[in-house]
Amino acid sequence: MARPKTYTNKKLKAIALKVEAYTEKPPNGIPTVAECAVLLNHTRQFFYEHEDCDEFSDAVKKLMAKKEYLLEMGALSGKLNASMAIFSLKQMGWSDKREHSMPGGTEGKGPSKITIEWE
Known about the structure:
Blueprint: H1 9-24, H2 33-39, H3 44-49, H4 54-77, H5 82-91
Helix pairs in contact: 1-4, 4-5
C-alpha cells in the first residue's frame, strides 16, 4: 500500500483555483463534489480531508452553496426532478421532518390544562 500524498498549502491553493473554475462552469449544470473530484483526479474524501487550508475549504464551501442553490431553484421552478432534488438536498443536511414541541417538553412538567374563554 502506498503512502498517502501530502499537500502543501500552496498546492491546495492551486487545486482550489481549479475547484472554483469548475464551480463557475460545471459540465453537467449542477456542481458536485464527486464530479469535481473525478475531473481533478482526486477522491471525494480528499475534499473533506483538507479543510485545514482556508482557500481550499472556502472553494469547496462555495461549490456546495452553488449546488444547494441550483437544486432548490431547479426544484421550485420545475426544471429538475423534485424527487432527485429532495434526495440530494437531504444529503446536504436538509430535512422534511416536522418537529413539534409542547411546553414542558416530553416529560409532562409543563402546563397541564388549557383554558378557552368564550365571549
